[in-house]
């Protein structure tokens, strides 16, 4: 179904309750609803927003269009949790209901100040000629989760030299000042990030552009996030307009980072290495991080991409968030590990130890549709080995190591209902290792695979039939020693 502009910008508050109930019923009848991922009750979820630890809880909001699986009038939807695993539905956080966010409360971030959580976000507006004008807005949440929007925007003008693609403020505190990075497009239609500073969260000063080495790198950088970890500076962002190159940049838009010396605030220079993709899979965009009271840097992303149709669309909903991942730095690279608290989800455990010799094998206890699975291949001389999950006679999702090419390959060409095939059905990345660990979290319609303790990660939505529950191990042209544990979730 084609959505008209009018439909996309109609308000949740103006809908008849019968319409919302019917939509929710359609969503709940979808066979691909997730069981332990954050997903919208109806409509479309996109970027994680306002991720912060405040007043005894992790707070996590997301971009939400309630009325269907398309991008339209965006709200902030609020979830909260004590353990990053069990999430409480805290209802709508921000409604697009004033003249500074009338066409959507777009992405932003949160920080605590004076005992209150300050949410800073982009208010999207359009004039009668549909020309966009973004405002950066502030809303303040108290310890009872009551959110109040400030009357006036905190940044109303786009600085000279930039277009109206100017959004997604990410705020942090350094010494006694607040800083925010904002995703921007220069007038020559190249992407970049600009820096603002503030003493009080309400008056913001334009400092200028971050001076990176990436002067011509796509046409827009969305959702920037700057933080320091282990004495290094990290800038995460989602550039648009990067062309595929070998195994890299295969998705419609990318998400990645540059890492280097700490940002030099005085002249905004950032000495850094090359751009590296965060995730090697299919469905990953617009990540956001926060720091928690234990000093952990935790990242969550949208498990989806703009401008791609998904099989759940016909059931009136689309997308979910990734699981929270803790970030580390090793050898100039970000390492991602599922947060430890996810062990709380573990139920019944099974275990297998086997030597595979040029064969495909399955084991009695090893099957399921929702599980955590950790498989170590400690020794191998096979040319290729791997695991098939959500498998049946006709379907399988494959993660494998090609020891000749030295590549990890994720193949969803037989995963079930196909979609986005024009962007390819496999994803790969180079990895040279003597031992391979596949650690994965499989939900009804997704898989997140952490390779070698988070050195590489592959995230993808999959849409298999509910009877595709087998797990199979295989080795080709040689042998592989496999030790595997599986927990039902
Ligand atoms: C990224 C993005 C952001 C914007 C938001 C709108 O997916 O396009 O740049 O703020 O989504 O929903």
From TrEMBL:
<dbReference type="Pfam" id="PF08244">
    <property type="entry name" value="Glyco_hydro_32C"/>
</dbReference>
<comment type="similarity">
    <text>Belongs to the glycosyl hydrolase 32 family.</text>
</comment>
<protein>
    <recommendedName>
        <fullName>Sucrose-6-phosphate hydrolase</fullName>
        <ecNumber>3.2.1.26</ecNumber>
    </recommendedName>
</protein>
<comment type="function">
    <text>Enables the bacterium to metabolize sucrose as a sole carbon source.</text>
</comment>
<dbReference type="GO" id="GO:0005737">
    <property type="term" value="C:cytoplasm"/>
</dbReference>
<dbReference type="InterPro" id="IPR023296">
    <property type="entry name" value="Glyco_hydro_beta-prop_sf"/>
</dbReference>
<dbReference type="GO" id="GO:0004564">
    <property type="term" value="F:beta-fructofuranosidase activity"/>
</dbReference>
<keyword id="KW-0119">Carbohydrate metabolism</keyword>
<dbReference type="Pfam" id="PF00251">
    <property type="entry name" value="Glyco_hydro_32N"/>
</dbReference>
<dbReference type="InterPro" id="IPR013148">
    <property type="entry name" value="Glyco_hydro_32_N"/>
</dbReference>
<feature type="domain" description="Glycosyl hydrolase family 32 C-terminal">
    <location>
        <begin position="341"/>
        <end position="483"/>
    </location>
</feature>
<dbReference type="InterPro" id="IPR013189">
    <property type="entry name" value="Glyco_hydro_32_C"/>
</dbReference>
<dbReference type="InterPro" id="IPR001362">
    <property type="entry name" value="Glyco_hydro_32"/>
</dbReference>
<dbReference type="InterPro" id="IPR006232">
    <property type="entry name" value="Suc6P_hydrolase"/>
</dbReference>
<dbReference type="InterPro" id="IPR013320">
    <property type="entry name" value="ConA-like_dom_sf"/>
</dbReference>
<feature type="domain" description="Glycosyl hydrolase family 32 N-terminal">
    <location>
        <begin position="37"/>
        <end position="338"/>
    </location>
</feature>
<keyword id="KW-0963">Cytoplasm</keyword>
<comment type="pathway">
    <text>Glycan biosynthesis; sucrose metabolism.</text>
</comment>
<dbReference type="InterPro" id="IPR051214">
    <property type="entry name" value="GH32_Enzymes"/>
</dbReference>
<keyword id="KW-0326">Glycosidase</keyword>
<dbReference type="InterPro" id="IPR018053">
    <property type="entry name" value="Glyco_hydro_32_AS"/>
</dbReference>
<dbReference type="GO" id="GO:0005985">
    <property type="term" value="P:sucrose metabolic process"/>
</dbReference>
<keyword id="KW-0378">Hydrolase</keyword>
């Amino acid at each position: 179904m084609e959505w008209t502009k009018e439909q996309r910008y109609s308000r949740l508050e103006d809908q008849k309750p019968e319409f919302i109930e019917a939509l929710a019923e359609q969503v709940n009848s979808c066979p691909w609803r997730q069981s332990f991922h954050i997903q919208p009750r109806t409509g479309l979820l996109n970027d994680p927003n306002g991720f912060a630890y405040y007043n005894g809880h992790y707070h996590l909001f997301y971009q939400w269009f309630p009325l269907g699986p398309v991008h339209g009038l965006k709200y902030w939807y609020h979830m909260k949790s004590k353990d990053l695993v069990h999430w409480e539905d805290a209802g709508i956080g921000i409604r697009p209901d004033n003249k500074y966010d009338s066409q959507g409360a777009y992405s932003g971030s949160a920080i605590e100040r004076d005992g209150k959580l300050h949410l800073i976000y982009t208010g999207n507006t359009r004039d009668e000629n549909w020309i966009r004008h973004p405002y950066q807005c502030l809303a303040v949440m108290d310890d009872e989760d009551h959110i109040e929007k400030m009357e006036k925007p905190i940044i109303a003008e786009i600085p000279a030299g930039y277009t109206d693609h100017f959004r997604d403020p990410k705020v942090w505190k350094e010494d006694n000042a607040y800083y925010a990075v904002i995703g921007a497009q220069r007038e020559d239609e190249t992407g970049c990030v600009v820096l603002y500073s503030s003493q009080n969260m309400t008056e913001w000063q334009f400092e200028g552009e971050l001076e990176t080495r990436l002067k011509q790198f796509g046409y827009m950088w969305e959702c920037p996030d700057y933080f320091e970890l282990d004495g290094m500076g990290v800038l995460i962002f989602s550039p648009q307009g990067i062309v595929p190159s070998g195994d890299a940049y295969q998705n419609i838009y990318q998400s990645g980072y540059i890492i280097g010396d700490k940002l030099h605030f005085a002249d905004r220079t950032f000495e850094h290495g090359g751009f590296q993709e965060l995730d090697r899979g299919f469905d990953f965009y617009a990540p956001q991080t926060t720091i928690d009271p234990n000093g952990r840097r935790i990242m969550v992303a949208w498990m989806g991409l703009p401008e791609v149709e998904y099989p759940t669309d016909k059931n009136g909903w689309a997308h979910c968030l990734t699981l929270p991942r803790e970030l580390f730095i090793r050898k100039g690279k970000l390492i991602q590990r599922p947060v430890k608290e996810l062990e709380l989800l573990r139920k019944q455990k099974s275990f297998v130890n086997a030597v595979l010799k040029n064969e495909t094998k399955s084991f009695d206890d090893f099957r399921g549709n929702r599980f955590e699975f950790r498989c170590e291949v400690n020794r191998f001389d096979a040319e290729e080995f791997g695991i098939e999950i959500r498998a049946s006679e006709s379907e399988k999702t494959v993660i494998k190591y090609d020891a000749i090419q030295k590549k990890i390959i994720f193949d969803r060409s037989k995963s079930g209902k196909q979609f986005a095939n024009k962007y390819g059905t496999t994803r790969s990345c180079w990895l040279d290792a003597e031992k391979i660990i596949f650690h994965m979290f499989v939900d009804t319609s997704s898989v997140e695979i952490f390779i070698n303790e988070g050195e590489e990660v592959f995230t993808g939505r999959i849409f298999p039939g509910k009877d595709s529950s087998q797990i199979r191990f295989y080795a080709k042209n040689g042998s592989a020693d496999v030790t595997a544990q599986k927990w039902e979730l």
